[in-house]
Amino acid sequence: RSDLPDYVAPPFLRLPGVVRTLLGGGARDHAQSEGEPLPPLSLALGGAAGRHAGEPVLGLEGTGPNSPAPTWFHPTYLARIGLSRAEWKGHAAWEATTSALVRTRDLLAERGAQLVVVYLPSKSEALVEFVTDVELLYRYLLRGFDGEFPLDAAQAHARLLQNRTSQSDVLSTFCSLERIPCWVATPFLSTLPGRGETGFLAADTHWDSVGQNAIVDPLCAFLAAQGLLDF
After folding, report:
1. Which of the residues 65, 133, 143, 175 has the least number of beta carbons within 10 Å of its own beta carbon?
2. DSSP for residue 135
3. pLDDT for 167-188, tens place per residue?
4. Cα-only R_g, the chain
């Protein structure tokens, strides 16, 4: 089974309109021609973690254990997971976001309701550690930037892995200090590749049915523990 729409075929995207503009914009790898679409990233599923970078992407039909799975990341979302905790706290939107959370908590409390924050990661946050081709991942990353990029492929990959949970970490810490219940979905989605699934549509940023089902029970359990759900 393939989750890819009709305009996608392995090993390259056939990009219409806005998607072509998205992947064709920003800073470019010198090996890339103007507007040339990027090939899919390959994810190691199950026992495929030992697969060597550069091996051909296998068919898209029904990936499973021991099979590499092709997927595409949004370059801008990929770039964001390289930000450190300090950089997130210094982000222009951080103060406005946290202030809004506190105000919302207080307004709801006045009405006898409870604010709960549920953090849903981007596809790149949940799956970047399973990418098998660091050089191709770097080409994706460059598409999210204009101008010179200060890191090489290995350095950028290390930074992505080191900081991929930074945004959820600073949010969780803030919510804990402000006594706002906060639940993070990332750990539950990141376990799926080990079971032979990605949890996301291959050419889209959204979950597939596996990803949706992966968070239902743990989220309900969290809400029940907060006294907000009876089931």
Report:
1. 65
2. H
3. 999 999 999 999 999 999 999 9
4. 19
